[in-house]
Amino acid sequence: MPPLPDDPIDALLSAHGLRRTSAARLVLGWLLAHPDTSYTHAQLQMALQDDQTEALDRVTLYRLIDRLTQVGLLLCRVDARRVRRYQAMPASVHATPHFECQSCHRDSPLSGALQASSRDLEKAAQTAIEALKALGYTGLSMDVALRGVCSDCASGTTETAA
Ligand SMILES: [Zn+2]
Fold this sequence. Notes:
With 162 residues, the protein is an alpha+beta fold. The chain is 44% helix and 13% strand.
C-alpha cells in the first residue's frame, strides 16, 4: 500500500492526478496562501520570484497554471481587458462576488461591501449549482463579477497602477 501524503498540498495534487513536483507545490501553495487575490501569469511569476531563491521558468509556470486550472484547483477569470487571472479555487464558497475596477484594474472580493446581498448571491449560486448537479453536470463553479470604477478611483485618490 503506498503511503498517504500527509502534506495537504501534496494530497490535493495527488487527488487531481498531478505530479507532486516542487514547482507544483510552490504555485498551488502560494495561491492557497493568498486566496483573496487573483493574479495574472506575470504577477504570479513576480510574486514567486520575490519569495523563492530558485526561479521558476516562464514556460514551466504557464504549463503548470494551465494544468492546475484544467483539474479545477485554480479558478481562471478573464478581466475586462481580456487578461487571464488565476486564484485558488474557493473550497467552501461557490461564487465569491468580486469587483473589477476599470480604472486601476484591482480585483477585490465584495463580501464585505455587499453584506446581505453577498449571501443572497451565494445562495442563488448554490441553488443553480445543485440544480445542474442533479442533472449530472460535474466540476461546477460560478463566477460573479461586478465591474465599474472603485470608490478610490472615483474620488481620485488612487495612483494609477502600472
Ligand atoms: Zn480603482
